[in-house]
Amino acid sequence: MMRSLWSAASGMISQQTAVDTIANNLANVNTTGYKNEKTEFKSLLYQTLQTRTTTANGEEKPIPAQVGLGTRVAAITSNFTQGAHLDSESYTAMAIDGDGFFAVRGADGNTYYTRNGDFKLSSGADGNLTLVTADGFPVLDTNGNPIVIPGGVSASKMMVTAEGAFGYIDNQGNYVDLNQSIGLFQFNNPAGLDKMSNSLLAATDASGEPLNEATTPNLVLSTIRQGYLEGSNVQVADEMVNLIVAQRAYEMNSKAIQASDDMLGQANQLKR
Predict the structure, then answer these.
(1) Do both 102 and 226 map to the same domain?
(2) Same domain for 62 and 127?
(3) Kind of pairing, strands 194-195 and 184-186?
(4) CA dist 201 to 61, 197, 210, 263, Å?
(5) pLDDT one-digit tens code per residue, 81-125
């Protein structure tokens, strides 16, 4: 009965993590570029009760008697399917159509990656404008440099091609190429990216090195849609169903603990 107590307790802990994950998905249903997450479980060690028959020969049984010792969380996996493209009034809003990620330079100087294309223009000390995230992190081009726009160019004059090439329309109505393209990067295993705050992702050994679409051959190239934002891929109906399932599993594990406790209580009263 002690096994049932610990097994059920591990189930409650795991289902609580599942509820936490679902709650995070629902909280980010309107977060630009957010990817929904799913909790995955694995069984713990099994305890072998019997492997041989009770006959005089004590031969090996074809099927041993083993009891599992509960469950635990194996991983929380992100689903990187593309979200819907939502129309935006911002000229600096950009959505990726494909598997690519934007690259930004964090406050610590390291490069991070994101699908959130809700960019802004920040004015520098030299009067030029820099394309940045909503938190002020510079957006990088294909060479890893911040994208700089001459001062005085309004956001409404900016133009970004589907390939990410940056330019603007001058006062004479001529197109001026800035000779910079937004950097787009892919990963062999995007689910292995380390999730940071502010919708940023960090490359890890599990994700593999970032693959620059501009220089890496044999990649299916992504495209950019200016004036659009990628919405979250969270499906509220699915998350509510998952929430009900996790809640019921949590309740069943709690009832198993109550049943084990009652059985132990009855066993302790036998001596009276």
Answers:
(1) yes
(2) no
(3) unpaired
(4) 51, 8, 11, 49
(5) 999 999 999 889 999 999 999 999 999 999 999 999 999 988 877
Are residue 64 and residue 112 in the same domain, yes or no?
no
Residues 115 and 220 in one domain: yes
Q: Report how far residue 132's alpha carbon sits from residue 149's, in angstroms, rounded to the nearest whole number.
A: 11
Interval 22-39: pLDDT, tens: 999 999 999 999 999 999
Q: Do 37 and 110 share a domain, yes or no?
A: no
Q: How many domains does the chain have?
A: 2
Q: How far apart are CA 153 and CA 121, in angstroms?
A: 10
Are the CB atoms for 78 and 36 separated by under 8 Å?
yes
Alpha-carbon distance of 206 to 39, in angstroms, equals: 18
Range of the domain at 107: 85-230
Q: What is the pLDDT of residues 202-222, one digit of tens each?
A: 999 999 999 999 999 999 999
Q: Where residue 1 falls among pLDDT bands split at 50, 70, 90?
A: low
The whole-angstrom separation of Cα 120 and Cα 110 is 20
The model carries a pTM of 0.85
Q: Are residues 47 and 91 in the same domain?
A: no
Note whether 217 and 114 are same-domain residues. Answer: yes
Contact 113, 103 (CB under 8 A): yes
162 φ, ψ (degrees, to nearest 5): -60, -25
Helix axes 236-268, 2-27, angle to 10 degrees: 160
Euclidean distance between CA atoms 68 and 259, whole angstroms: 18
111 Ramachandran zone, left/alpha/beta (phi>0; psi -120 to 50)? beta
Helix (H) or strand (E) holding 27: helix 2-27
Tokens 């996996």 belong to 77
